[in-house]
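User: Batch of two.

Assistant: Item 1 of 2:
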Amino acid sequence: MGPRHGDEFNRIIGGDNYGWPIVSWGDQYSGIPIPDHDTRPEFNAPEIYWVPTVAPSGLIIYQGAMFPKWQNNAFLRGLRSKSLVRIRIEGDKAHEVERFAMDKRIREVEEGPKGAIWVLEDKKGGRLLRLTPHK
């Protein structure tokens, strides 16, 4: 997490510079704007960015067999968006392809040993959910 809005999903290349805190698709929490990535082409721009914020709290790269079409997809957990975001990674490109509204802040996501996706909701009343294919 960085500024207000403008959360990024970057393809990391050793030695490259992604611009933070010089450029971002967000603004400072004080409201002071930060120049957008396209104003400074010497910095690598993110593959995906979110305005408004999803407030990412981490992610996994799915490798399981339970959801074969999702293998090698990233699952980003969203605090503010209260969602699980699926990101398809194809070569050196990435795209948000699906967002699962969970109605609770998502604190954790993990892949289980048999390929189920486990999601932990945040705060009082949060649940531990085991996601499996619909039958």
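Item 2 of 2:
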Amino acid sequence: MKRRLLLIGAGGHCRSLIESIESTDRYEIAGVVGLANEVGMTILGYRVLGSDHDLQDLVSEIPLAMVAVGQIGSASLRIRFFEQLVAQGVELATVVASTAIVSRHAEIGAGSVVMHGAIINAGARIGVNCIINSRALIEHDAVVGDHCHVSTAAVLNGGASLGRESFLGSGAITHQCVRIGDRCVVGAGVIVRSDVESNSVVRYLRAEDRAVKK
């Protein structure tokens, strides 16, 4: 029997998450929690049941949930909802899309999603409340810290690590065993060849056609 699941957040990431959930046979989406002005709307056929002011009542009825807000730049909103759910004793679901490939020797934390076409290889570890987006590759023995977003078609190569609350942009690639610190933002298409200190922004500078740290 499918378990009823409540989604927290009603934006674009929620739509992608719904697609991943619907591709599996594990969960039945019971509804969505959105902003006050979104209550009563439907997101891909699922009703917005209430706002965060109604969350305590909703999770008492549906005690399985998942954070469905996106993360570009800062993980603060996802963390706030995640910690609120944990404090209320809610169970956090883990979703793996039907077309994703996850090694039985990999680990995925509570509240994380592995979206369509993503690959998680042997020995890889994914923290809690993470987004592994479409076609991303987490290679063998790589580590993704808590509350991270590995964006579309990004590659974290073997033995590399992404610190907690960090963002790896679309198409970004790390060299093997590179370590990216906590709360970092790596821009789309960047090739990360060496370690990155915590709280860094690594962006693509078109004029010089190279990655720079700021």
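DSSP finds three helices and 25 strands in the chain.
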